[in-house]
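Methods — Computational structure assignment.
A single polypeptide chain was analysed. Its primary sequence is given first, followed by the predicted tertiary structure written as C-alpha cells.
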Amino acid sequence: MQWRCVELQFQTLAMKNMGGLPLSIFFLSLFCNMIALTAGRGAHPRHYRSASRHTREDAKLVQVQLLPDGDAQEWNSEVSLQLFEHRKLHGPPLTSRDRIHEIQLRKDVYREYKKRKAESERQIEEAKKPRKPHPLLCNSHSCIVAGLKVHYEHQRGLFFCRDCPNPALEGSWLDIWECHYNKAGQIAGAPLVFAVPNDGSAAIMNDEDVRGRVALMRRGGVALNTKIRYAQEAGAIAAIIINSKCERKVDGLRCEAEMKERAYGHGFAISDAPNHWSDIRIPSMIISEADGKRIVGMMDLDSMEINGHGIQYFDKHLNKS
C-alpha cells in the first residue's frame, strides 16, 4: 500500500507557538509522520523495499496545505525532509526505521539537486550552440513565424497549422500514438523541420535547423529510441515519426502486436526495457503514413542526394544559398 495525500487542508489551531513553531505545523508534522518520512512509501519494511524499485518518475506528486493563506506546495522529498526535521525537534525519539527513512530522504534530495543542476548546465550549453533563424511573416502590427508549426500536449494529441500565430488555438487536430515513456504534463510547440537523414538512422546532419524545433523523421532503419535520441542530441524539443506500412512478410508479428497495444490504450515501446529510454527527455509520437504525407505536403522542402542515404528532404527557407 502506498500513501497518497491529494490535498491536506488545515487551519491554525491556536495563537500559541511551541518553540517558535506554529502549533498547526507541529500537529501537521506529527500527523504526516508516516507519510512524510516514508516519502510516499508504506510504513511496513516490506513495502519500503518493494517501493524502492520504482523510479522517481513513477512517484506520485501530491500537495499539502502548509500556509493559512491557502498556498499549496508540491509534495516531494525536500518537503518531506523539512517535516522530518520539525519532527526530530518536537516529536518523539527516532526509531531505527525512522533513521533509515532519514538517510533515504537525504539521498533523494541530493539526487534531485544533482539532476536539476545537470539539467540547468545542459540548457546553458544548449543555448550557446548555433541555430538558424526561421523566416517571419510581418504586417504593420506584428510578426509570426512562417511555415508549418505544431503543438503537442500529453494525452491531448497534436495540433498543426501553417502561417498561423498559435497552432494550439487555431490548428487542426491530428491523431497520434504517443510513446509510453513520455512524461505526464509535457508540452512542446515549435516549427516542424525534417531531420536529415530523414529516417533518423544516423546523427542529425542539419542540427542547426532542428535545434529548438520539432524534428520530423520517417520510421525504419534503426530502433525508435535510437532515432529519437539522435533528435534529442541535435537539440530538438520533440520528435514526430511517420509510420511505415506494416507487412507480415517483412515485419513479422510486429503488426499484430502494435495494433493490440494501441487498442488497449498503451503507448508505443511499452514492451521496451525502461533503461533504453531513461536518458530520453523529449516527447515522441508516431503518426500514420497518410497523415505523414499530409504534413509533408504542407512543408516547404527542397531535396538533395547524400551519399549513403539517397534523396533527402530539408527545409528550403532555412537553407537559402
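Note: The two ends are 63 Å apart (CA to CA).
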